[in-house]
Structures are given as C-alpha cells and as structure tokens.
Amino acid sequence: MIEVKNVVKKYKKIKALDDISFNIKEGKITCILGINGVGKSTTLKAIAGLIRVDKGEILIDNEKLSSKTYNKLAFVPDIDSYFPQLTIKESFEFMKEFYVNWDDEKAYEMLEIFNLSDDRLISSLSKGNKARVKIILGFAQNAKYTLLDEPFSGIDIFKREEFIGVMAKYMNDEQSIVITTHEIAEIEMIVDDVIVIDNGKIAFEFNAEETRENEGKSIIDKMREVYRGE
Description:
Elements: E1 2-11, E2 14-24, E3 29-33, H1 40-48, E4 55-60, E5 63-64, E6 73-76, H2 88-98, H3 104-113, H4 127-139, E7 145-149, H5 157-170, E8 176-180, H6 184-187, E9 193-198, E10 201-207, H7 208-215, H8 219-227
Parallel strand pairs: 3-8, 3-9, 6-7, 7-8
Antiparallel strand pairs: 1-2, 1-4, 4-5, 9-10
Helix pairs in contact: 3-4
C-alpha cells in the first residue's frame, strides 16, 4: 500500500499540495482527478520521489522513499518521450540495465499491440506513437505501483481501448495503477477508487462501483458535485 500522510508541497508562496492524506490499495486502479493546476501531477511526482515534499511523509509498503523502493515504482510522465535520440529497441536495452524487473516479453507484446517496430527512432515518431512508447516503458518495468500522468494524451480512442485492455491483462492482485487523466468516461468502468483534488486539497474520495450502485452516479457526476456544487 502507498500511504500519503499530511503532505505539503510549496512553490514559493503557493501550496501545490495542502496537507493531503490518502492511501493507494494493492490490486486496485486508482484515479486522481481534478481540473488543471490543482495538484494531480505534483502528487504523482511526490509519490515517485521526483520532488521533495515540505511536510508530511510518503510510505511505500511501510517504507520511506529510498533505493529500497526504487523498483516498486514506475512513473510515466506527461512529456513527449524519454529517449528521443534512441531507437525503441535501444530504449528497451537501456531500461533493462536499470530495472531489475524489466520484462522484454511484455515490452514486445505491447509493441505489437501498438503496431510499432523496434527499429524506429523515437524522435521520428508522431506524438501518439511517442505516448505509446512511454506506456510500454512504464508497464514493462513490472513495478508493483505504476503511476500514469495523462497516459492517453495524443492516443486515438481505438488505441486507448486497446491500452485499457492491456492494463486489465497485465495487472495482478498485488499490483496497483494510479492514473491522472481528463478522459474520465473512458476509464469509468475499470477504475476502483477515485480521489478528487481541488486547490491542493482532497475534496473527497469514493469507490466508483459503490457510487454507481448506491447513488446511481458516474465518476463525472461526482466531479460535478465538487466543481459545480450540484
């Protein structure tokens, strides 16, 4: 389990994260939602250890972020590409050197799903194909926790559906996926838990299936309650 405890992150006088606390459970797909600039990406970067928080702590399976937790976390950022100067194959070889759980079989299976060849230079790829390579590089790490920051950016609706199928295929009961996305409707039926952030604070949390069954509301319906007061 990932535990985020009373975390504060400031950029000068602005609190990007304002005393937030929540847990990411094993074997679940958790979606962190909110409008632009509310702290979603900052939250993922803090969990991944890419930024230092000002207060609070983050625990990965009861351990503080350290070299011991390195291979438990895979972070897929919202940037064009990791290795623009490399071919896809070379990027796979690079990752294999640094991640003990790297899975070549999974990487090439996903490459086939996305209809890409490993001799392509990453810098020559379209935005959508660069996004596909990022996703492969994240999932093939075989990390216990995979953090995806806007993973569907630049990917057409049909490939998004394929990717969602890949997520379901490769997850096991001990793995977790954490997603930030604006494509709420497309992840509606695969998400377990939802965390809504507003102005750096946790607005509320809910289980998507329970909310549909007990209240007859979708994730988007619950989002409206926060941002429109409906």
